[in-house]
Amino acid sequence: MATLHIYYGTMTGNAESLATRASERAATEGWESQLHNLADVKPADLASAGLALFVVSTWGDGEPPDDAREFFEELAGTETDLSGLRYAVLGLGDHDYQDFNAFARNLDERLAALGAQRVSERVEADLDFDDTYAQWENTVFPQLGELKATLA
Ligand SMILES: Cc1cc2nc3c(=O)[nH]c(=O)nc-3n(C[C@H](O)[C@H](O)[C@H](O)COP(=O)(O)O)c2cc1C
Asked: How far, in Å, is the centroid of ligand 1 from the Cα of 42?
């Protein structure tokens, strides 16, 4: 069975807790899933991941969380072919910041530039992210379900 890889980039734990919720939803939908902190991920890992969800916050002035910084620097500098990757991005941010959800947007655009294909459009959540998360989850998982047969 295909494995669903769930990647998070967080500073204070919000993205990690939502990624954990996504892994729980994955289990109820019969997916085998693996949860990864982007601190432990190399861009080349994505080439063989197949199917991925990214839950990432934005810090500084539109920057990645500290733990995801090295991953993203490497992703920005690589030409790794990610055409085998299907993915969706959920961003966490705060609309009071000028660069609202900038890291989620930059990540999404870089993945697409390397050939990865979106399962669904990026969603950008604000500080009250619970409802937005629930809507994202309820959009993404049915789409993943449709893909499941082709990836088995
Ligand atoms: C110092 C600081 C800088 C931040 N910078 C941004 C930013 O540039 N853009 C944005 O959309 N949100 C920004 N945020 C909001 C965080 O992304 C938001 O609080 C998020 O829920 C944190 O998730 P995390 O716990 O997974 O890191 C910032 C928050 C803090 C405290």
From this structure: 23
14 within ligand 1 shell (Cβ under 6 A): yes
Where in the chain are the domains?
A: 3-151
Which atom number of ligand 1 is nearest to the Cα of residue 15? 26
Mutate to test the pocket of ligand 1, among 55, 59, 133 (most ligand atoms within 8 A of CB): 59
CATH architecture for segment(s) 3-151: 3-Layer(aba) Sandwich (3.40)
Q: Give the integer Cα–Cα distance in Å for 52 and 29.
A: 15
Q: What is the pLDDT of residues 56-87, one digit of tens each?
A: 999 999 999 999 999 999 999 999 999 999 99
Per-residue pLDDT of 98-142, as tens digits, reads 999 999 999 999 999 999 999 999 999 999 999 999 999 999 999
**Partners of residue 53 on adjacent β-strands:** 6, 88
Of the candidates 66, 52, 69, 67, the one whose C-alpha atom is nearest the C-alpha of residue 108 is: 52
